[in-house]
Amino acid sequence: MGDKKPLLIKLIRRDKLLLLMFLPVFLYYLIFCYLPMPGILIAFKNFTPGHGVFGGDWVGLKWLSQFVHSRYFWRLLRNTFLLAFYPLVIGFSIPIFFAICVVEIKNGLFKRFAQTVTYLPHFISTVVIAGMIINFLSPTDGIVNTMLASLGMAKINFMMAPEWFRSIFTVSGVWQSFGFSSIIYIAAIMGIDQEMYDSGKIDGVNKFQEVWHLTLPSLKPTIVILLLLSIGGIMSVNFEKVYLLYNGATYETADVISTYVYRQGIESQNFGFATAVGLFNSVISFILVYAANQASRRVNDMSLW
């Protein structure tokens, strides 16, 4: 014990700059993720402002039962799952193949240009992205409807059509995220042993075989870990984007659990009910990531823990 304490102090002194860089991240999760956790009690109480988290009468699973038996339950569950599942299915593979293409670009100037153009949408505010989508799809002077009219086709009020919401949300989300998501894969590809590629060239493999039999298998651990993390967040749909794009006419396909929680908790001030719904969403997310982790461990012998 006497040796461990000086060693710990020595390590802290050695890595003090790294620890200082980590401090904002630590404080963020401590303040916004861990300290509010006692608020979960509100989900099991008849909470009223002014009585505190520990005040109010216990109601048990009343709010959860009320949500499960409400007419909105299956609609919210379906929309939340689909608005997260579609981008995962359509957009998960795009960063992988984009990273492979970027690494193969020999022209350094064009490579930097391609990376910059695809990274930029990630740093654009969600409010700006939503405004761009609404303007582009405007039924009066939006660029999309202007093109449809020039082709002799009828204009479509996309933002008021429930059947278009999921497509708009998915395509815009993939466009906004695929460039930045490719950074991890680019770094993983750059870390692959180049001697393996040299051996492949000696054996006469072509570019497609090189990608399929060398690059993708080498990326397998990275792909599995990121897929598990994506599955864990499948119930956490981008609230800000949905809230900015949806309206009463598109609730049927756009309303998700997070927006429903916002309306119940902030607008209707039904805090106990909203907390119970949010807790339900978190539990489902945990079950999904745990099941995916166990399946990955059995099939690929790879897992998060």
In brief, what are we looking at here?
Belongs to the binding-protein-dependent transport system permease family. The chain has 305 residues and is an all-alpha fold. It has helices at residues 4-14, 16-34, 62-68, 73-91, 93-104, 108-119, 126-136, 143-150, 162-190, 194-202, 207-232, 239-245, 251-254, 257-267, 271-300.
How would you describe this structure to a colleague?
By secondary structure, the protein is mainly α. It has one domain: MetI-like (MetI-like fold, Orthogonal Bundle). It has 15 helices and no strands. Helix 4 (73-91) packs across helix 9, helix 9 (162-190) crosses helix 11 (207-232) and helix 11 packs antiparallel against helix 15 (271-300). It is globular. The model has no long low-confidence stretch (mean pLDDT 88).
CATH domain class: Mainly Alpha
- How do the SSEs run, as a string of H and E? HHHHHHHHHHHHHHH
User: What is the beta-strand fraction?
Assistant: under 5%
Assign the CATH architecture: Orthogonal Bundle
CATH-assigned homologous superfamily: MetI-like
Question: Helical amount among residues, as a percent range?
Answer: over 70%
Continuous helix count: 15
Query: Can you give the mean pLDDT?
Result: 88
Compute the separation of the termini in Å.
29 Å
Radius of gyration: 24 Å
Could you describe the largest sheet, including whether it forms a barrel? none
Uncertain residue ranges: none
Q: Count up the domains.
A: 1
Shape: globular
Instruction: Give the strand tally.
Output: 0
Judged by helices, strands and strand pairing, the structural class is: mainly alpha
* CATH fold topology: MetI-like fold
Protein name: Sugar ABC transporter permease
Keywords: Cell membrane, Membrane, Transmembrane, Transmembrane helix, Transport
InterPro entries: MetI-like, MetI-like_sf, UgpAE/MalFG_permease
Subcellular location: Cell membrane
